[in-house]
Amino acid sequence: MAPHIARRTRVALMTIVMFGIVVAFLAPLAQMTLTSLKSERQISQAHAPLLPSDPRTYTYRGQRYDVYLVPVDGAVRELALVKKGRTESGFVDPAAPEKGVITWRGSWRGLQPSWTLAPRWSNYSDVWNLIDFPRLLFNTVAIALIGTLGTVLSCTLVAYGFARFRFPGRGPLFTLLIATIFLPATVTLIPMYTVFAKIGWVGTWLPLLVPTFFANAYNVFLLRQYFMTIPREMDEAASIDGAGPLRTLRSVIVPQAWPAIAAVTLFHFVYTWNDYFTPLVYLSGQPDLQPLQVGLAAFNGLYTHNPAYIQAGTMMTIAVPVLLFVCFQRTFVRGIMSTGVDK
Amino acid sequence: MSRMARREARHGLLFILPWIIGFLAFTAIPLVATFAFTFLNISLSESEPLRFVGLENYRRLLGDGQAWASLLVTARFALLWLPVVVVLPFLLAVAINSRNVRGGGLLRVLLFMPYVVPFVAGALIWQNMLVEDGWINSALRRIGVAHPPSWLNDPTWVIPGLVLIGLWGLGSGIIINLAGLRAVPTHLYDAARLDGAGWWRRLRHVTIPMMSPVLFYTMILAVVDVMQYFLVPLVLFDGSGDPGGATRFFNLYLYQTFFTFQEMSYGSTLAWLLFVITLIVTLVLFRLSRHWVHYTSER
Fold first, then answer.
1. Nearest chain A Cα to B95, which residue?
2. Residue B95: which of A18, A216, A333 has the nearest Cβ?
3. Angstroms from B26 CA to nearest CA on chain A
4. Which of A28, A141, A257, B23 has most Cβ atoms within 10 angstroms of its Cβ?
5. Can you state the percent helix, strand and coil of chain B, rounding each to 5?
6. Is A139 exposed, middle or buried, given 0-12, 13-18 or 19+ CB atoms closer than 10 A?
């Protein structure tokens, strides 16, 4: 084989393997989508088809009968079961009902039902009402928006301080900031919870919102790295024009750094949207204030018997972050690439 | 210090003030308080007068079989999870970056995508995959496994099951590894090729040494995360530790101690133990890193 053909084969093979891995990796999304559209009955039945379906029925002389796949003379025919018997049963051919009842020898219990495609969109409207989706959505959006505002504001200020001003202890303080990334959150949780409980903040949004206004290491780092790439001459030009530090930040840095600010906005919004533990701890017993993830976990506990509902609810809570990702995937990927820090 | 320099320093400190306040209020003081709590008898459920109890909480910890058993559960999960979370993103990134694979950009996006799926949702999606007649077992039956494991009901298989669920969180690791791979100078590969090195020797002698800081970084973060792992089983099994106590993770026990039973002091003692173990493991890894992590001179 010529070398370039060998190389082409290798490329084709490896590419196919990689896309195979991706298909397997994303298959759960497909199963979620299909399950969310099925009936409870189909899920509980063995040998049911892959796609959301209902058993086919046929109305014969004003009565509804189930249609089965019946082997007759070596061929499988779809016939409606009108008279159940132990050793022989009566069937009617929906294609030719005028021929009357056909008697078939065998146990009808061994037959497979015939299915017809029937996505159950009503699962979504059911879940919408059952978990009071509008309320959960409102809480999630409100918490995420306020928290994102706090994060973007505070992290921009702090990153600007670290990127542009010399002050004693700047190096050690920045190292300390980065070190907090590696500190297990568990080790600071209990005193914070105790204090929040004592001052009456548990059961309110305050423990979720207030800390966002005091900056966090990941986002400060991301913004600072970006600010450092903006030429200092631009600041100096602004300050010669008489701009103070805040005006320079607003009129020079922020307009230049919008890709990094967009990344922080998206990261924090999705992070808050997806957060489960903080609202679980601080909002337990307050269903009216809880966000989607807490509501979804509780819903899972209540409706274990109906996987379709669970999967429909799940789909409803992932729609927003997945859509944001589809629209802004470049910003997400670049954000993580530029920090090398994951959240 | 000149007046200008003093003004600059004042401005700088003013800008970072939000973080300094936040660091003191939400990190430094709580960290010290966690330690202080371990010598007290704070409980939100009982109104006992506040009292210094010396080492009583530590004595209780030593005799607390449940705490040590749960630590073992966490360790068992960590042993399986850590190699996966460090090695798999690296291998996938190497494959995406390979000259023999087309569509790297698309692969990158698709593999990263589940990272934005909320983990509660992710856990429930995978629960649907891992049930008795879910797609995973259907696929296993099709390739000839007559009795595929009952992932979420079998104490032995639930840990691998949780590892599978965790795969959806690997996206950021892949991206970080890709960023690292892009930074490896191509002339190193060219030189290795000239020396007749095959792909394995290039991986072993160029890629892995050049990527060692990235691998080390992902490993440290993974250790910190895995020590605190418990939220996925909390969602799936409602904190019961099912099946058969196999998911009674250390952090679940800690969470129930301080949250369900409101025992703040004993919870803090458990948190402090977790912190000390994490610190020791991290320090050991740093020590060992001298032998295998190579920082290029530019860093």
1. A18
2. A18
3. 7
4. A28
5. 75, 0, 25
6. buried
This complex has an ipTM of: 0.90
Residue B253: which of B114, B72, B93 has the closest Cα? B72
B18-33: per-residue pLDDT in tens? 999 999 999 999 999 9
What are the extents of the domains in chain B? Answer: 59-292
φ and ψ of B294, to 5 deg: -110, 120
Q: Structure pTM?
A: 0.90
Look at residues B93, B111, B96, B78 and name the one whose alpha carbon lies nearest to residue B219.
Answer: B78
Q: What are the φ and ψ backbone dihedral angles of A116, each rounded to 5 degrees?
A: -130, 140
**Domain at B59-292, CATH class:** mainly alpha
Contact A186 B254 (CB under 8 A): yes
Q: Summarize pLDDT for A41-60 with one digit per residue, the tens.
A: 888 877 788 899 888 888 88
> Does residue A331 have a pLDDT over 90?
no
| Pairwise CA distance, residues B219 & A117, whole Å | 48
Q: Per the CB < 8 Å rule, is A25 touching B251?
A: no
Amino acid identity of A39? S
Please tell me if residue B280 touches chain A, with a CB cutoff of 8 Å.
no
> Rounded distance, CA A224 to CA A261, Å?
11
> How many Cβ pairs within 8 Å bridge chains A and B?
255
Distance from CA of B269 to the nearest CA of A (A): 10
B8 neighbourhood in chain A, CB within 8 Å: 165-167
Q: What is the mean pLDDT of residues A168-191?
A: 94
Which residue, among A72, A117, A74, A119, has the nearest Cα to A95 in the 3D structure?
A72
pLDDT of A342 above 50: no
Is the CB of residue B276 less than 8 Å away from at least one CB of chain A? Answer: no
B130 chain-A contacts, CB cut-off 8 A:
none
